[in-house]
Design a protein that fits this description.
The chain has 256 residues and is an alpha/beta fold. The protein has 2 domains: 127 residues, Rossmann fold, CATH 3.40.50.300; 79 residues, no CATH class. Helices cover 32% and strands 27% of the residues. The protein contains 9 helices and 12 strands. α6 links the parallel β7 and β8. α4 packs across α5 and α5 runs parallel beside α6. The model has no long low-confidence stretch (mean pLDDT 90).
Length: 256
């Protein structure tokens, strides 16, 4: 289990806290989505959990052990991070980008071995882009790049996968394909998957649990079909909507 306990954060030169005591748990085999509008604190929370920023106070626990003070190398054995965007300085091949996920398993002056290549190729197979193995990462589509980064995270062989807005800049088809693949991987691999989204419909369709935040405060937490309501959307997004249930999933329609 990944547990966030009373997390606070503020920039060093600011008096105002960006995160104000956020707490929640994320379970194995499930997708937990941090949902909220732009400026709500989603990315700040993500960076604190990933270890890029240090919280002002609070705890981040993995299986009951605090990880706030862990080194990046030790943290890389727990978390695999899929960023919103990734522009490599060189035109690496897809397989080379995926092999970067093996860095924590390889010595500083060592090269990837046969096992590392096998793991990287298996990760590409899981996300169904093994045919792109030798293509330049800079010359494939946005959806294919996102799948490559997910394969890199899989090759890292960590129990937790963190995805920051994995559908940003993708068209509708690729948004659905990426989230379906993430859902499948979380279930089959038994991973703890934590991702940020700003689209409540996507969060409702693909999440096992949603944590709604706004202005750095947790507004609601639970299964999407239980907590996503017209009143909640109005409160968080200041938009009037109508919600319908289809196959127990909440579909949100804006009132125009």
């Amino acid at each position: 289990m990944l547990s966030i306990k009373n997390l606070h954060f503020k920039q060093k030169d600011s008096k105002e806290e960006i995160l104000k005591g956020i707490s929640f748990d994320a379970q194995r085999g499930n997708i937990t989505t941090i949902l909220g509008p732009n400026g709500s604190g989603k990315t700040t929370l993500f960076k604190c959990i990933a270890g890029l920023w240090e919280p002002l106070k609070g705890e981040i626990l993995f299986d009951g052990n605090s990880i706030v003070k862990l080194s990046f190398r030790k943290r890389a054995k727990i978390f695999a991070v899929v960023p919103q965007e990734h522009e490599p300085p060189f035109a690496y091949s897809v397989i080379d980008v995926v092999l970067m996920g093996r860095a924590g398993h390889i010595g500083i002056f060592s090269m990837p071995g046969k096992k590392d290549y096998e793991i990287a190729k298996e990760a590409l197979k899981i996300v169904e882009i093994e045919h792109l193995s030798e293509r330049a990462y800079t010359q494939i589509s946005g959806g294919e790049r996102q799948l490559t980064l997910i394969a890199r995270a899989l090759a890292q062989e960590t129990p937790v996968m963190l995805l920051d807005e994995p559908t940003s800049h993708l068209d509708f088809r690729n948004q659905i394909n990426i989230l379906k693949k993430i859902k499948e991987i979380a279930t089959k691999k038994g991973l703890i998957v934590l991702m940020t989204l700003h689209d409540p419909n996507l969060a409702s369709l693909f999440s096992d649990k949603v944590v709604v935040i706004n202005s750095g405060t947790k507004i609601a937490e639970g299964r999407p079909e239980e907590i996503i309501s017209e009143e909640l959307i109005r409160r968080v997004y200041n938009v009037e909507v109508i919600i319908s249930k289809i196959n127990e999933k909440s579909i949100i329609y804006p009132v125009i």
